[in-house]
Design goal:
Largest sheet: 46 strands, antiparallel
Low-confidence stretches: 1-20, 747-759
Structural class: mainly beta
Distance between the termini: 242 Å
Helix content: under 10%
Number of strands: 46
Mean pLDDT: 84
Radius of gyration: 57 Å
Number of helices: 2
Oligomer: single chain
Shape: rod-shaped
Length: 759
């Protein structure tokens, strides 16, 4: 029995051990499968959750907003939810894309559905609901962001950094509205935008604040803005940037000032408003400036400033850089080219061109001027920087100005043009009075300049006109050689001053003195000389006319040469010769070659000194000779080389003849007072029924008395009525029969007395 009990106890023990083993195994298995006991709910909270999700949908079932968090804690009043490892998804209306917000922790307020992320949060825009994005997405990082889970609006006043396809940037404070897809950066905005080409330089955009409308592709900058690309900078007030394919397309800015200071290039521009067009690589393609527009190009040797109500700049981008190619100014346009000062004092003129429309063209490379043209009436002014240079003004309906080295004017072409040339400062100091402004005009002007910008030649074509004080000129066209100050007038040339007029096919005029050289069908008119410098051989009170193949005025118009078929005349008084020289200082006239002088006797006067009308044939005194010299000191004309003298019914031939003229104020009828002939003198008087021929070596003729005196070489008188008489000296009168003899007559050939009939 004891052994059976013992066996039962052993069996019970074995069973107990087995049951305990089974229990332990089952308990371990159950423990392994049981859920973890949640931690105790913290004080002030009502619930905890893990892998928490919350969302809302649109009425048509599309997702509107979703919030995911690793852990969620609900406040005791159930109004605040603490989230960790948060992802907020705000869907666009079509549900295909959403804006994603990620942050380590956030607090969500249930009552107003606001979410606040105290730490750094990352916002990623336009995340595809399905698949991978086609390009890098825009992301924004900032701390202290407040989100409205209903509207998706996000705001922070902390530092913000962001990246987008083509650039990155920073700001202080920002807000984002997913509904309007508008990003606003509050302060100290800096955005770096890369170009389409990875090798292109980025565009740096800075502003006080920035508003970006993704829908419109427009960025608003203000209240100040700055765009920088390499050494190209635009500073402005408020600006509007329009994007195309997320690249800057245009910029509109107010109160803008820009600079381009790249190597070998130095530009400045400013305006009340500017509009800039860019290439996808952020190269400036076109700039339109409105309101007090100003462009300054600092080139080698000069600074060029372009002004206008509006100025359009056009750039060449083919080289991978923005090179200024051309510019157009509209409204009150002007271009000033101011040379750099020359330490030696040889600074060229400053050039100022003005017109309502100005077109400027740059040389390749965009560094130097090539041409400037006008489409409307304008002016080109040369302002001297040297005392000896003249200020010049060109006015024209159209102008085309070409530039050479150092941005100096090389040539210009102008239509319907006029010029004004003013006395130089040096001339004003030397001569206080009598300085005149010179004016010219023509339908076309072409001018060339030297390397120092000084005018070399100027050609004015079609209807040329010139005036300088009392001096005037005109022709079909004219050229000016500035170095010699000589003006050449071609075709229908004419010059005039207060002393008279000269006309010819070609006239070369020395502007500084008024001297000229006229050629081809030359005619002159010299007005009565108020200063009485005209020779007494010509009447001081009558204009003097002249013609010749060529006329030269020299020594400041005091010596005048008439050459080739020359004729000078006053009314019926004239001098004709191959060549005639008039010396105003000496008051002399010299004529050479086929000389013919002709003087008309004055009409007789009544007792009151008034001319009696002439009823008969005019009475002339005519002298012909190879050479004549007249001097005013003794009012004597010397004819040499064989002279022929004519008076009515009287001729004189001799080797030389001296003729003395009466004073212009004389009461005598004839201009000739008396004449003296020498060498083989032969005097022939022919009356109605009588002929007398006197010969000798010396003869004197006195006009008023009609007296002839013959001496030398056996003077002889042949009278058809009284025969011949020879004596040492013969004196006879043309108006009567008187004959006076001195010395014993050697031979009387024949004596014939005419007795008067008695009545």
């Amino acid at each position: 029995m004891r052994s059976v009990r013992w066996l039962l106890l052993v069996a019970i023990a074995v069973i107990a051990v087995a049951v305990f083993g089974i229990y332990r195994t089952q308990r371990a298995r159950a423990k392994a499968n049981e859920r973890a006991v949640p931690p105790a709910v913290p004080l002030g909270t009502s619930a905890n959750a893990f892998d928490w999700e919350w969302g809302e949908s649109t009425p048509d079932g599309k997702p509107s907003i979703e919030v995911h968090a690793k852990r969620q804690t609900v406040s005791q009043d159930a109004d605040k939810i603490q989230l960790q490892e948060v992802e907020l998804q705000i869907f666009q209306k079509d549900g295909k894309k959403y804006d994603r917000v990620r942050c380590p922790e956030a607090e969500m307020t249930v009552s107003d559905k606001k979410l606040y992320a105290p730490g750094e949060a990352e916002i990623t825009l336009d995340v595809p609901a399905k698949g991978d994005p086609p390009h890098p997405l825009t992301s924004i990082k900032a701390a202290g962001i407040n989100f409205d889970s209903v509207s998706g609006h996000a705001v922070t006043d902390k530092h913000v950094s962001f990246h987008f396809d083509g650039g990155e940037g920073t700001s202080e404070g920002a807000s984002y509205d997913p509904d309007s897809r508008t990003l606003h950066l509050d302060r100290d905005v800096v955005v770096n935008m890369r170009g389409k080409d990875p090798q292109s330089s980025p565009m740096k955009v800075e502003a006080g604040e920035l508003t970006y409308s993704e829908k419109e592709g427009v960025i608003h900058l203000g209240p100040w803005s700055r765009l920088t690309r390499d050494d190209t900078v635009i500073n402005a007030g408020a600006s509007v940037v329009k994007l195309l394919d997320k690249k800057i397309d245009t910029v509109d800015a107010v109160d803008a000032k820009g600079t381009d200071k790249r190597s070998g290039r130095d530009l400045e521009y400013s305006a009340g408003n500017i509009h800039v067009k860019y290439t996808p690589d952020h190269l400036m393609e076109k700039l339109n400036a409105v309101g007090n527009a100003r462009l300054v190009s600092h080139g080698k040797g000069s600074d060029t400033t372009m002004l206008g109500d509006t100025v359009d700049l056009f750039f060449n981008t083919q080289t991978g850089e923005s090179e200024l190619a051309s510019a157009v100014a509209h409204g009150h346009g002007s271009i000033e080219s101011k040379p750099s000062p020359d330490p030696k004092g040889a600074t060229p003129d400053t050039k100022v061109m003005k017109s309502d429309i100005l077109n400027l063209f740059m040389k390749p490379g965009g560094k130097d001027l090539s041409r400037v043209t006008t489409n409307t009436a304008g002016t080109l002014e040369f302002l001297p920087n040297q005392a000896a240079r003249h200020q010049r003004l060109l006015k024209a309906d159209q102008m085309d100005v070409a530039y050479g080295d150092k941005n100096e004017v090389q040539s210009f072409h102008a239509a319907n043009a006029a010029t004004e040339t003013y006395p130089s400062e040096e001339e004003r100091k030397k001569k206080k009075t009598g300085l005149e402004t010179a004016y010219t005009s023509s339908k076309v002007i072409d001018a060339s300049f030297d390397e120092k910008g000084e005018i070399k030649t100027m050609k004015q074509t079609d209807n040329f006109r010139y005036s300088e004080g009392v001096r005037k000129a005109q022709s079909d066209y004219a050229t000016l050689d500035n170095a010699t100050n000589v003006m050449n007038l071609e075709n229908h040339a004419r010059i005039a001053d207060d002393t008279g007029t000269t006309i010819g096919d070609h006239i070369q005029l020395q502007q500084s003195t008024g001297d000229f050289d006229a050629k081809g069908h030359v005619s002159t008119t010299r007005l009565p000389d108020a200063k009485k410098t005209t020779s007494d051989m010509l009447d001081k009170d009558e204009p003097t006319q002249g013609i010749a193949d060529r006329v030269i005025s020299a020594q400041r118009n005091h010596l005048i040469h008439y050459m080739g078929n020359a004729v000078l005349w006053q009314s019926s008084n004239r001098i004709q010769a191959d060549k005639i020289d008039v010396d105003r200082d000496k008051k002399s006239i010299v004529a050479d070659g086929n000389v013919v002088s002709q003087f008309l006797d004055e009409n007789k006067k009544d007792d009151d000194g008034k001319p009696i009308p002439q009823t008969g044939t005019p009475i002339f005194t005519i002298v012909k000779a190879p050479h004549m010299t007249y001097t005013d000191a003794d009012r004597m004309a010397l004819y040499t080389g064989g002279a022929d003298f004519w008076r009515p019914m009287l001729t004189v031939k001799c080797e030389s003849l001296r003729a003395w003229l009466n004073d212009n104020n004389s009461d005598a009828d004839s201009r000739l007072n008396h004449a003296v002939g020498d060498g083989k003198v032969d005097i022939v008087q022919i009356g109605k029924d009588r002929k007398r021929v006197g010969t000798g070596e010396h003869a004197e003729y006195y006009t008023d008395e009609g007296k002839i005196v013959l001496t030398g070489g056996e003077p002889k008188l042949d009278d058809s009525l009284k025969g011949s008489t020879v004596a040492d000296k013969l004196t006879y009168f043309t108006d009567d029969d008187r004959l006076l003899l001195e010395g014993a007559p050697k031979k009387q050939v024949r004596t014939h007395l005419v007795r008067k009939k008695r009545t």
